[in-house]
Amino acid sequence: MLKVLGALCALLLAFAAQAQDAGTLKKIKDAKTITLGYRTDSPPFSFTGPDGQPAGYSVDLCKRIAASVERALGSTPLTVKWVQVTSANRFDQVASGAVDLECGNTTVTLGRQEKFDFSNLTFVDGGAVLVLSDSKLSRLADLAGKTIGVKPGTTTETALKAALKDRLIDAKVVSVKDDAEALAALNDKRIDGYAADRLVLVGNVITANSGVKYTLVQDEFSFEPYALVMRRDPAFRLAVNRALAQIYRSGAIGEIFNRWLAPLGKPGPLLSAMYFLNTIPE
Q1: DSSP secondary structure string for all residues of the chain
Q2: Which of 200, 221, 225, 195 is nearest to 112 (CA)?
Q3: Residue 19 confidence (pLDDT)
Q4: Distances in Å between the alpha carbon of 31 and those of 28, 34, 75, 78, 81?
Q5: Are strands 33-39 and 79-85 parallel, antiparallel or unpaired?
Q6: Are 255 and 49 in contact (CB under 8 A)?
Q7: Cβ contacts of residue 23 below 8 Å, gap of 6+?
Q8: Contact indicator for 221, 160 with CB cutoff of 8 Å
Q9: Each residue of 180-216: pLDDT tens digit?
């Protein structure tokens, strides 16, 4: 009996080792390449910079994570391959293995955790609505009878519809393909507001530099905790979180924040607390 149990234990350990060897870290090591997904249209978190290269807060985090994974693997230098993803296909790209880590502004939800692994939190934001300054729309309630654009399949869409229903605000919610289409529709007054995460809206206005004056309605209608998305893989998730913890502990997060978010001032109390709580010791 003891021999049988011993054989079973050995077999289970072999299967566990084989599963670990077949994980993301082995894939990266064998290919000598880590593949990172980035958004082209979500400044200041993830977008295409003036030089045509990926840029932004989340992109900088992923660059440092890639360097940390390279050191952990102790192999030859890794090539960092960047792949464009959208709000519509980002999860499919991760699930298919087209990207190892999605570096954008994706909100963690319990529903999404059923299918994917997420890193520790990288940012916290809230949903807001962008309007034209001359529209005299200052509160969410002012959008009653108006039309609000939102990207479909996002947590913003779900939260906006719930907030409008809870507050008995009869506004029409329509789908927009991306930020560029939304701003064009807002400028042409085909929609009265554009709903997205607050800092994404600010980033798009700054990037557009169109001379058009915008404002944000005063009410936030959701809590959006951001994290990096990956396939289910405890070893790779640990490698990512180890890198993030080091970024937070070392103070390097301050450099990254200042590079992309300095115009907004210092991190607020909630964000500062998030950084502190994720300085997880070894």
Answers
A1: -HHHHHHHHHHHHHHHHHHHHTSHHHHHHHHTEEEEEEESEETTTEEE-TTSSEESHHHHHHHHHHHHHHHHHTSSPPEEEEEEE-TTTHHHHHHHTS-SEEEEEEEP-HHHHTT-EE-S--EEEEEEEEEEGGG---SGGGGTT-EEEE-TTSHHHHHHHHHHHHTT---EEEE-SSHHHHHHHHHTTSSSEEEEEHHHHHHHHHHH--S--EEE-S---EEEEEEEEE-S-HHHHHHHHHHHHHHHHHTHHHHHHHHHHGGG-S--HHHHHHHHHT----
A2: 225
A3: 40
A4: 5, 8, 11, 8, 11
A5: parallel
A6: no
A7: 233, 235, 236
A8: yes
A9: 899 999 999 999 999 999 888 888 888 777 788 899 9
One DSSP character per residue, 116-128 reads -EE-S--EEEEEE
Answer whether residue 1 shows pLDDT above 60. Answer: no
The closest alpha carbon to 151, from 42, 279, 261, belongs to 42
pLDDT tops 60 at residue 145: yes
**In angstroms, what is the C-alpha Rg of the chain?**
21
Amino acid present at 208: A
Q: Residue 12 has which token pair?
A: 């289970």
- Predicted TM-score (pTM) of the model is 0.79
Only one residue has tokens 């993830």, namely: 46
C-beta neighbour count of 21 within 10 angstroms:
12
